[in-house]
């Protein structure tokens, strides 16, 4: 079934109105029995796909108006959620930190200033801001210079103690260590772009005559580049940081320009190098070494930078499914609630929030869903999605979810190439999730009658052929759901292709979908 662009716009307006006010009571009483049988039959047929024969599938659909459960299969089974975990982390963060929360990054001095000489240490203190760019550290250095400081007799102290020293999640795969989506977590970090991929550097290669030229964004000498690539007839190149080192090895052939996002080994040390270089650029000379540790509480502030608000950060976080944002927010919640910037403290905040909102079946091991030991039931996800509709921050959070079929990258996000030209386009607001053998899609959709529905689809342990199109067929069928009109043709639904591959957009850099 296809709709004209005018009807798609109209559908989007209906969807927006259906969700804008949170919990509501239907204007006209709905007959629970009408349409539900057809829906059950169609969803059962969609889930009979051969790719799910030996897989695990959990699906729950609920009416947000009536509270009626319209469909359920394995609603209470614990399944791997992948990035659907971010639904819990982001909701808990919005509730605990508040949409106006900002991450400050400050420069402090520990000594006495005499003329242009600062007799003491210079302290760079972070609280986890994932939006800090090299230019922001440069601006902080410029403020130090503007304060009249030309010489610092002591050390440059990188104070990242707002969070603990554990950089990687307990269950994260070791071979993801150099990947930007599994970058180390630190209270001092930097991003190379306005996707805010904190803790990573963009390494680019290009043919330059008969040699391969390598550059980084931002420019940095922190990484040691070993360039073994050669100019060839095609680009088939591997850019990879060696395990537990700063060495990036480049091999293969280069014909066309290519770039890769590479996680640094130590974000704090990397930021220290950026800031020290920026200080020198602005004429500030630090005589002592660079060290990591806590600056004294008596240190006086010289310069400050504050991040965008959490409400603004939710857009790149959820639209692009940024793992690092999830983990930083987890530690930030722990720091606020129990004064401990740790995974354990932050995860307790998230799970306590979930339980307070009626969620029972949940096992959180990290904030992003990178861990394969994370476990949720589709019923629990639907319960969370139902409960948060009454929160004062719901509208901002709902708008931050990826929107199906909307090609704008910061609107459609990880759903921008899915469900286009269907009743689900510009209607479904949902969080995607992808790991090898795992895919999930949970969120909100407005039916053909204007009835708001909540759903969770979790597919685990499939062996071949991504079943993301199955998720899309279910979401489209929900957008077609009507208690008054005849059901659509499920055979047409099964022919609808999502255009999505095995991985969601967040795993692909540069964005390929």
TrEMBL record:
Q: Name one Pfam family in it.
A: Peptidase_S13
Q: What's the EC number here?
A: 3.4.16.4
Provide the GO MF annotations for this entry.
serine-type D-Ala-D-Ala carboxypeptidase activity
Q: Which Gene3D superfamilies match?
A: D-Ala-D-Ala carboxypeptidase C, peptidase S13, DD-peptidase/beta-lactamase superfamily
Bilayer-crossing residues are none
Question: Signal peptide position in this chain?
Answer: 1-20
Protein family according to the UniProt entry: Belongs to the peptidase S13 family.
Alphabetical keyword list = Carboxypeptidase, Hydrolase, Protease, Signal
- Look at the named UniProt entry and state the broad enzyme category this protein falls under: hydrolase
Q: Which SUPFAM superfamilies match?
A: beta-lactamase/transpeptidase-like (SSF56601)
What protein name applies here?
A: D-alanyl-D-alanine carboxypeptidase/D-alanyl-D-alanine-endopeptidase
């Amino acid at each position: 079934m296809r709709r004209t662009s005018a009807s798609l716009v109209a559908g989007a307006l209906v969807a927006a109105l259906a969700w804008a006010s949170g919990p509501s009571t239907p204007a006209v009483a709905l007959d629970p029995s009408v349409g539900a049988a057809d829906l059950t039959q169609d969803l059962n047929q969609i889930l009979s796909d051969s790719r799910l024969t030996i897989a695990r599938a959990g699906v729950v659909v609920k009416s947000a108006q009536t509270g009626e459960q319209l469909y359920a299969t394995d609603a209470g089974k614990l399944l791997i959620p992948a990035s659907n975990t971010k639904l819990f982390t982001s909701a808990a963060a919005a509730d605990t930190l508040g949409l106006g929360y900002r991450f400050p990054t400050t420069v402090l001095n520990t000594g006495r200033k005499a003329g242009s000489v600062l007799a003491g240490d210079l302290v760079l203190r972070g609280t986890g801001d994932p939006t800090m760019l090299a230019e922001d550290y440069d601006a902080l250095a410029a403020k130090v210079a503007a304060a009249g400081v030309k010489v610092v007799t002591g050390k440059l102290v990188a104070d990242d103690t707002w969070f603990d020293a554990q950089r990687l999640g307990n269950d994260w795969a070791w071979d993801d260590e150099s990947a930007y989506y599994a970058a180390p977590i630190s209270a001092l970090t930097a991003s190379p772009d306005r996707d805010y991929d904190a803790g990573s550097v963009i390494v680019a290669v290009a043919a330059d005559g008969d040699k391969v030229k390598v550059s980084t964004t931002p420019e940095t000498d922190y990484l040691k580049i070993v360039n073994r690539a050669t100019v060839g007839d095609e680009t088939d190149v591997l850019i990879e940081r060696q395990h537990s080192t700063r060495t990036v090895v480049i091999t293969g052939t280069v014909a066309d320009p290519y770039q890769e996002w590479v996680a640094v080994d130590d974000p704090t040390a990397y930021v220290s190098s950026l800031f020290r270089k920026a200080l020198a650029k602005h004429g500030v000379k630090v005589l002592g070494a660079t060290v990591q540790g806590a600056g004294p509480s008596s240190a006086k502030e010289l310069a400050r930078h504050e991040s965008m608000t959490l409400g603004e950060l939710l857009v790149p976080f959820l639209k692009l499914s940024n793992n690092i944002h999830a983990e930083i927010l987890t530690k930030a919640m722990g720091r606020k609630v129990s004064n401990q910037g740790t995974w354990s403290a932050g995860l307790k905040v998230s799970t306590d929030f979930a339980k307070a909102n009626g969620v029972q079946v949940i096992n959180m091991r990290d904030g992003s869903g990178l861990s394969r030991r994370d476990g949720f039931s589709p019923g629990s996800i639907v319960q969370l999605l139902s409960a948060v509709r009454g929160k004062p921050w719901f509208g901002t959070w709902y708008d931050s979810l990826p929107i199906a079929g909307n090609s704008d990258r910061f609107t459609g996000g990880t759903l921008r190439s899915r469900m286009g030209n269907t009743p689900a386009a510009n209607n479904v607001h949902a969080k995607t999730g992808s790991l090898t053998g795992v895919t999930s899609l949970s969120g909100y959709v407005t039916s053909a009658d204007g009835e708001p529905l909540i759903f969770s689809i979790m597919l685990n342990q499939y062996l071949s052929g991504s079943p993301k199109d199955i998720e899309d067929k279910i979401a489209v069928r929900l957008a077609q759901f009507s208690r008054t009109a005849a059901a659509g043709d499920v055979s047409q639904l099964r022919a609808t292709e999502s255009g999505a591959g095995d991985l969601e957009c967040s795993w692909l850099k540069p964005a390929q979908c």
